[in-house]
Amino acid sequence: MQLAIFDLDNTLLGGDSDDLWGEFLVAQGVVDRDWYAAENRRHYEAYEAGTLDIQAFLDFALKPLADNNLQDLLRWREQFMQEYIEPILLPAADTLLAAHRAAGDQLLIITATNSFITAPIAERLGVDQLLATEPEQHNGRYTGRVSGTPCFQAGKVTRLQHWLAQQGPADTAGVDSIFYSDSHNDLPLLRQARRAVAVDPDPVLTEEASHQGWPIITLRDGNQPRHRDNGEPWHP
Fold it and tell me: Is 105 a catalytic residue?
């Protein structure tokens, strides 16, 4: 059995759920519009540049979870799913996931975005296994802190190895794995996987994928994964 691992934002989704959650909170008036929008944009640009301070970002991103009760958060999340996530679902991503299911592969989403946001997205995509940054909870409320290792950059390798140890094999090098990602922030895990696939990659990952001979595909062109260079269908 092959382990098919997928980044979420800008890979299986045609956008970034973490960034969009910030936009949603601003639109709902849950947070201060000008300050939060500026900070959200600043952190996202740092992420794209590969300079994100993950702890500073999580202090910022998890604060709204701590500042509001769970009932309101769940209500807002349901609205967020309908208004912000449904429009960025990619038919070709569904096709790719279906192909791996048909092959009998184990599917796993691994994402830096916290599990409060991403758990219903993984469920919507029909993927049971999710590794995400875990926001800490105490007495039924979020604390604004992180539980365990943030699932970001090398932290994805750490979290995956821990998950694999719970399943059986403890080393990614010993697992027949394929990993799909759009971001150079995922290079630590892309280099660990048996097979790496760049999906609508950023410029840094495009260059690395070309150097390594990794497939470069797009999920944003119709209903089927395609090679980005020639538009031919791509099959896992």
Answer: no
